[in-house]
Amino acid sequence: MKTNRPMASSSEESPDKIDIAILSELREDSRKTLQDVGAAVGLSPTSTWSRIKKLEAQGVIKRYTVDLDPAKLGYHDFVIVQLTLESHTDETLYEFGRVLATIPEIQEAYLVSGDYDYYIRIAVRDTRDYERLLREKLYKIPGIRHSKSSFVLRVLKEASVPLG
User: Which end of the chain is flanked by fewer CB atoms within 10 Å, N or C?
Assistant: First the structure.
């Protein structure tokens, strides 16, 4: 039976069970060979490569990276900063985001709803390093009305998006 619905293009397809298995293997170790990933999911290396390329083209796989240990690089503390801005014009929000992107210690920044405008996670070496970052970088950004900082005492869970 013929339908009038347009066919979904390959870039709109959701990952199937095999794609999810491939993603799971790559998330465990993105340096696994095509042979190892294929063997784990029951595909040939060529079929595995084709599926990985499709997932990259769809933007499901955004990049390949290295998971670094912050403490071994001297960053022993994380601070969650809640910020409120004086103004919420498009220009102010854009400029604030642009400046945040230039500060390497800022690991994540979220524009949020609620009492504060932003939640920011910052990696610091210690409390003195945080005080320096506040003085030299964060508080030099124009338009900050209020901030509240909380040091992370212990990370209870870190995870990426669930698969399947």
Answer: N
* Cα–Cα distance for residue pair 22/18, rounded to 1 Å: 6
The pLDDT tens digits of the residues spanning 89-103 come to: 999 999 999 999 999
Neighbours of 117 (CB within 10 A): 21
- CB of 141 closer than 8 Å to CB of 84: no
CB 117 within 8 A of CB 84: yes
Give 161: exposed, middle or buried? Use CB within 10 Å, 0-12, 13-18, 19+: exposed
Q: Give the predicted TM-score (pTM) of the model.
A: 0.80
Look at strands 144-151 and 77-85 and give their pairing.
antiparallel
